[in-house]
Every structure is written in C-alpha cells, then in structure tokens.
Task: structure prediction
Amino acid sequence: QVQLQESGPGLVKPSQTLSLTCTVSGVSITNRDYAWSWIRQPPGKGLEWMGYIWADGTANYSPSLKSRTSISRDTSKNQFSLQLRSVTPEDTAVYYCARRNYNTESGWGQGTQVTVST
Result:
C-alpha cells in the first residue's frame, strides 16, 4: 500500500543546488510512527544515508553532508524534499527516498539518477 516516488532533474551543474521531491502515498508523512529519509548510491559505491525528517518537521543529517543538506516537507501534498547545495561531480548518484521506523529505512522508492556535470 505504501509507495514512494522520487522526482526532479536528472542533470545538475556544479556549484548549483540539487533538488528532489519524494511523493508518498498510502500513509501520511505526519504519521508519528515514521520518519522520512534520503539515501544515495554513487557509481560503484555503497549506499550513503543522507538524513531524515520527522513527522513534526524536525530534520537530522549525516555529519559529512550536514553543512550542505536540507530536508523539508509539504504536508498538503504529502511530499518531502531534498536540497543539496554546492554540488560537485562526486555528488553524482542514484538518490532514493524511504520510510524510516525502528531506526531502519523501508518502503523505498525506485530511485532516480542525478548526474552533476557541465
């Protein structure tokens, strides 16, 4: 029943902001049982947890990305979003959104490829 779908541009230029949106169906993002996460996987590398946002809007971030990352939500659209500032080619990755509970992500979206390049 729960579905998540990432959307946003597939190509971003260096120094710009990467912006993605996750649309959630089947459960409200204000449900207090869950948080909502962003994870990425660069080419040839493992999954990297980026951060999550609680049902009340409080966000938590990976220390390595905290200075560049913002996660927000739009409860009227049942969506949450990712902004990653000052991107470089090393930010090229498949980006996933997911539902988080009991300290584990579940209900993952299919992922979306984002390439940082001139």
Notes: The mean pLDDT is 97. The radius of gyration is 13 Å. The longest strand covers residues 93-101.
